[in-house]
Amino acid sequence: MIIPLHNDLSEHVLRPSSGNAFELTVEQLATAIRLGAFRDGDLLPPERELAERLAVSRSTLREAIAALRDSGLVTTRRGRGGGTMVTYAGEAPGSVPLPQPQRTATAIADVLDFRRVVEPGAAALAATRTLAADQRAWLLACAAQVREAPDSATHRLNDSRLHLALATLSSSPMLVEAVTRAQAALHELLRGIPVISRNIAHSHDQHDAIVAAVLAGDPETARAVMEEHCDATSLLLRALLRPRP
């Protein structure tokens, strides 16, 4: 399979909306921003292009962007040279308590089980692909950005970007959608626990091993290490979150 040489995560994360177009457009754009597909200071694509990508009218898109502005995720400048700019720099894990009522233990388990199924599969599939030089460099850069993040909020964004990059390199739009859902749900859970430095160091080593396996074309190792990585995060969340009965 020929893999398109697109390293713009937003091109893969955003998909045509159906049904409740306004709500789905807000959800997709907000998720893309919170997971780092659009980064702080980035301009959103031009209105016509973005509306076509999401398969919504330009009026619906404008209303969705207004909702993002009200939430502090973007700002819009009018006139020549203007546009809509992302103003979200991330949130440190543990900085925002889980909303009340908290998730039930069953709901938390469902998120973690779902992630454990889709992300190892995405990593394994990425390892079967023949990656171009720019894709390989992009994946290495994503991993380096996680290690080199200056603070925990940026680390969380860069971590999400790495996982989305791995899904993108699988060349499966359905897997990209599934991993995006898993990462969005995980992001909400991680907001409820503190940053633990030893876990972060362990996570970096696992990321490096996953990336190395993908680049070496070793799907078995990529899957196994991603499973270990998911299990480590799952253990922390199950231990530190206080779900409703």
Describe the structure.
This protein is mainly alpha-helical and 245 residues long. The protein folds into 2 domains: 9-86, Arc Repressor Mutant, subunit A (Orthogonal Bundle), CATH 1.10.10; 105-240, GntR ligand-binding domain-like (Four Helix Bundle (Hemerythrin (Met), subunit A)), CATH 1.20.120. Helices cover 64% and strands 3% of the residues. The chain has helices spanning 9-13, 21-34, 47-54, 58-70, 105-128, 133-147, 152-168, 173-190, 197-216, 219-240; strands at 74-77, 83-86. It has a two-stranded antiparallel sheet. β1 and β2 form a beta hairpin. α5 (105-128) packs across α7 (152-168) and α6 runs antiparallel to α7. The termini are far apart.
List keywords for this structure.
245 residues; mainly alpha; Arc Repressor Mutant, subunit A; Four Helix Bundle (Hemerythrin (Met), subunit A); 2 domains; two-stranded antiparallel sheet; 10 helices; globular; disordered N terminus
Give a topology summary.
Blueprint: H1 9-13, H2 21-34, H3 47-54, H4 58-70, E1 74-77, E2 83-86, H5 105-128, H6 133-147, H7 152-168, H8 173-190, H9 197-216, H10 219-240
Antiparallel strand pairs: 1-2
Give a quick rundown of the structure.
By secondary structure, this protein is mostly helical. It has two domains: 9-86, Arc Repressor Mutant, subunit A, CATH 1.10.10; 105-240, Four Helix Bundle (Hemerythrin (Met), subunit A) (Up-down Bundle), CATH 1.20.120.
